[in-house]
Amino acid sequence: QVQLVESGGGLVQAGGSLGLSCAASGSISRFYSMGWYRQAPGKQRALVARITNGGGTYYTDSVKGRFTISRDNVKNTVYLQMNSLKPEDTAVYYCKAEASNIWGQGTQVTVSS
């Protein structure tokens, strides 16, 4: 089974940027859609962005214009570039192979005001 490993989280000031990576142990091209989710303390895990094999993307309203999702099926990696970060973006960010139950372990993103 493919395993997903997120990296790139950390502490950043409001207005700053971070780039997350999700590296897969196997091919991601067989997964039509790959997604990034986040879970803030006391809240449910929620979809942030997803990308299809054809490059189609979806973003939740709160991150539109600030976050960019991309995927590299040769490197088997999914990326999330996060700009203009806000304190409300603070959460653990998870990568998921959509339509499967394959999740990464998560990476913490903390945005200070």
Describe this protein's structure.
With 113 residues, the chain is an all-beta fold. Helices cover 0% and strands 52% of the residues. The protein contains no helices and eleven strands. The strands form two sheets. Strands 2, 4, 5, 6, 9, 10 and 11 form a seven-stranded mixed β-sheet that branches. It is globular, with a radius of gyration of 13 Å.
Using only CA atoms, what is the Rg? 13 Å
Please give the alpha-carbon distance between the first and last residues.
40 Å
Secondary-structure element order, as H and E? EEEEEEEEEEE
Binned, the helix content reads: under 10%
**Tally of separate helices:** 0
Structural class: mainly beta
Query: Major beta sheet, specifics?
Result: 7 strands, mixed
> Per DSSP, what share of the residues sits in E-state strands of 2 or more residues?
over 45%
Weakly predicted, low-confidence segments: none
Dominant shape? globular
The strand count comes to: 11
Instruction: Average the pLDDT over all residues and give the rounded result.
Output: 96
Descriptors:
113 residues, mainly beta, seven-stranded mixed sheet, four-stranded antiparallel sheet, 11 strands
